Amino acid sequence: MPSLRNLVIDIFSTPRLLDALWDDYGGQIKTVELGRDLKFYVMDVVSYILVCCNTLEELGYFVMFTAVPQPLQRVHSALHTLRWHAAPNGFFPTGESEFWAHLAEHVAVFSSPFFPVLRRIVLHGEGNQVLADERF
């Protein structure tokens, strides 16, 4: 698959299922989107993607359905855009303190010096309530 550049993962049964894909093609993937699946919250897939896909330029995911990534141990010099969907889940209702704490943890990870070319975080979804809140 020499032309594989964009990858959308809606749901998965086990994260190890994708190991061969990351190992073989991670270096050529430019964009990854993760679906609205709480398995992404249970297992930190984002950290694995960031390590395996060193040319990744854009990453999109449902922030309230995704675990906070572990801090990187090396610079990711390609990621310039994050696309977050703010859809709430049962654990993090929009506007509640848990919602803001979880969002702040994601922001903290990507605000580190390990992402020197990150320039945009795009918030998708029913964000009016989020955007209107002074904590945003």
Overall shape: it is globular
Q: Strand order across the biggest sheet?
A: 1-2-3-4-5
As a percent range, the share of strand residues is: 15-25%
**Estimated helix fraction:** 25-40%
Report low-confidence residues grouped into runs of 5 or more.
none
- Structural class by helix and strand composition: alpha/beta
N-to-C terminal Cα separation, in Å?
Answer: 41 Å
Mean pLDDT figure:
87
Largest sheet: 5 strands, parallel
| Cα Rg | 15 Å
Question: How many helical elements?
Answer: 5
The overall strand count is: 5
Series of secondary-structure elements, N-terminal to C-terminal: EHEHHEEHEH
Describe the structure.
There is one protein chain. The protein is built from five helices and five strands, in the order E-H-E-H-H-E-E-H-E-H. With 136 residues, it is an alpha/beta fold. The model has no long low-confidence stretch (mean pLDDT 87). The relative contact order is 0.15. Strands 1-2-3-4-5 form a five-stranded parallel sheet, with no helix packed on it. The termini are far apart.
Map the helices and strands.
Elements: E1 6-9, H1 19-25, E2 31-34, H2 39-42, H3 45-52, E3 58-62, E4 81-85, H4 97-110, E5 120-124, H5 128-132
Parallel strand pairs: 1-2, 2-3, 3-4, 4-5
Features:
136 residues; alpha/beta; 5-stranded parallel sheet; 17% strand; globular
Brief summary of the model shown:
Helices cover 28% and strands 17% of the residues. With 136 residues, it is α/β, with parallel strands linked by helices.
